[in-house]
Amino acid sequence: MSTYFPKGEIARKWYVVDADGQTLGRLASRVARILSGKDNPRYTPFLDTGDHVVVINASKIKLTGVKAQDKVYRHYTGFPGGLREEEFIKRLARKPELIVEEAIKGMLPKSRLGRTMATKLKVYRDDKHPHQAQQPVAIAPVA
């Protein structure tokens, strides 16, 4: 069986996803699938065949259960005693784009290919975005 290669240049579409009232994990998995190209019939595992995704209303994302109170984001600065923690509620108020972006990037491959897939993701706090010229197609909310 020979390996499939898409012929010609890959035509990338633009999609816009409204995160208003959607669950973070369900939204992130759906967007990661589009970015990786798995919804595309020309999907090839070792090529970036995904489309561009614009996520709007990131500040209106929700979590189920008590995760909104319990979830903590941690990172280590590299220095002694440098473990930094930030609660979900505080990060949502400060930088909601980062919450959505990290959730989606965490579902992409941890490789050079995954990093190029992540460059096609644009996340915005409210419903305004500068990508109207690309004529993005709206995707229906996840049930």
Q: In summary, what is this structure?
A:
The protein has 143 residues and is α/β, with parallel strands linked by helices. Helices cover 29% and strands 18% of the residues.
Report on this model:
The chain is α/β, with parallel strands linked by helices and 143 residues long. It has a single domain, classed as Ribosomal Protein L13p, Chain: A, CATH 3.90.1180. The strands form two sheets. Strands 5-2-1-6 form a four-stranded parallel beta sheet, covered by helices on one side. A two-stranded antiparallel sheet has the order 3-4. Helix 1 links the parallel strand 1 and strand 2. It is globular, with a radius of gyration of 17 Å. The termini are far apart. The mean pLDDT is 94.
Mean pLDDT score, rounded?
A: 94
Kindly report how far apart the N and C termini lie. Answer: 38 Å
Calculate Rg over CA atoms. 17 Å
Helix content: 25-40%
Which class of secondary structure composition applies to the elements? Answer: alpha/beta
| Unreliable stretches | none
CATH homologous superfamily placement: Ribosomal protein L13
CATH architecture: Alpha-Beta Complex
User: How many strands in all?
Assistant: 6
Spatial strand sequence of the major β-sheet? 5-2-1-6
Q: SSE order in H/E notation?
A: EHEHEEHHHEE
Task: Give the SSE map.
Elements: E1 14-18, H1 24-36, E2 52-56, H2 67-70, E3 72-76, E4 83-87, H3 88-94, H4 96-105, H5 112-118, E5 121-123, E6 137-139
Parallel strand pairs: 1-2, 1-6, 2-5
Antiparallel strand pairs: 3-4
Helix pairs in contact: 1-4, 3-4
